[in-house]
Every structure is written in C-alpha cells, then in structure tokens.
Amino acid sequence: MEWLPYSPDLNAIENLWKILKQKIYKHYPDLQTATDTEETRLRIVAAPEECWAVIEVEILRHLSDPIPHRVIAIQELEGWYTKYRIF
C-alpha cells in the first residue's frame, strides 16, 4: 500500500515527535532562548534523550495499537482523511 510518508493517520512517529517536543519545551523552556554555547549544544542533545525516557509506555501503545484499524479506514476512504486524531 502506498501512502504519504508524513501522513499522521498512518505514521505514528509524527505524533510521537509532537509529544517529545512538548515534553522538551515543558522541561527545558530556557533552551528556546539560550545562547549559542557548547553547554547549550550539549543540553540540546541531552534533552530529547531525557524526555524520551519519561514517555509512558501507554502513550506508545496508544500510538501503535490502532495502526491496523487506520489502514482499513484509509482503504475504505480511498486515501482520504480518517476520523483518527491522537492528541
């Protein structure tokens, strides 16, 4: 089956990136205005790793479990948008 690689209906990683970015902005709000230093660069690299570690397994299941149902819905709608929204 062909689909757009960035379709949120069939690509759970797009929604996961959104969740990860929200956690980074929440836990590291100062990074948005931090000066361009080596310390800032190291914090920017560490922030996603630290935030990834606190994403609950249930959220990951919520993103991946409905994929088979989404595929069926996309096929029935001949590629048009589905009712699925994650967060």
Topology:
Blueprint: H1 12-27, H2 38-52, H3 57-64, H4 67-76
Helix pairs in contact: 1-2
Commentary on this structure:
This protein has about 90 residues and is mainly alpha-helical. It has one domain (about 10-75). It is built from four helices and no strands. The protein has helices at about 10-25, 40-50, 55-65, 65-75. Helix 1 (about 10-25) packs across helix 2 (about 40-50). The protein is elongated, with a radius of gyration of 17 Å. The two termini are about 25 Å apart. About 0% of the residues are buried. The mean pLDDT is about 85.
* Unreliable runs: none
- Which sequence of SSEs, written as H and E, runs from N to C? HHHH
- Secondary structure: helix percent: 55-70%
Number of strands: 0
What would you call the structural class?
Answer: mainly alpha
State the end-to-end distance.
26 Å
